[in-house]
Write a structure and sequence with these properties.
Elements (H helix, E strand, L loop, with lengths): L14 E5 L3 H14 L4 E5 L2 H9 L6 E4 L2 E2 L2 E2 L1 H10 L4 E6 L4 H9 L4 E4 L4 H11 L22
Parallel strand pairs: 1-2, 1-3, 3-6, 6-7
Antiparallel strand pairs: 4-5
């Protein structure tokens, strides 16, 4: 990554919550986000329950990075619980679990976007720039052609 141009809409992101049960991925994501949003407070959880407890302490993330498959929940139900707890936060779902139907359901339930776990750091950076300006993002392979408003790659 080019460190001179890595900062993305820093004024918009002061706090980030990463919810993923894989320590290596969670830590790598934290490092990438720290480069993009220098100075943002980043908290991490390996379960939905832990994330909800973090939120209950008063932590109000501007951005949530959420994996769909966690030890205590899997699929859209966990996302819906998280969305209810942080209605104003942008939530980017990052997961290796996905189908067009699931991704479209997530978008209908209020996700800001979906990104497969095999996406590059540069793709993550461009997607975050989009969703932090209020756009949504769904990769081409997970879109439907029904006129839904999605940011294009």
């Amino acid at each position: 990554m080019d460190h001179a141009t890595d900062t993305v809409a820093t004024a918009d992101v002061r706090s980030i919550l990463i919810v993923d049960d894989h320590p290596l991925y969670r830590d790598a994501l934290e490092s990438a986000l720290d480069l993009m949003y220098s100075g943002a407070e980043i908290r991490k959880s390996n379960t939905l329950g832990g994330a909800l407890k973090t939120i209950e302490t008063g932590f109000k993330p501007d951005l949530v990075m959420f994996d769909l498959k966690l030890p205590d929940v899997s699929g859209i139900s966990g996302f819906c619980k998280l969305r209810a707890a942080v209605p104003q936060s942008r939530i980017l779902v990052i997961s290796s679990l996905a189908s067009v139907e699931l991704v479209q359901s997530l978008m209908r339930e209020g996700a800001s976007g979906f990104l497969p776990k095999d996406a590059s750091a540069n793709k993550l950076k461009s997607v975050l720039a989009r969703i932090m300006t209020g756009q949504t993002y769904v990769p081409e392979d997970f879109r439907v052609s029904d006129g839904t408003r999605q940011a294009r790659e």
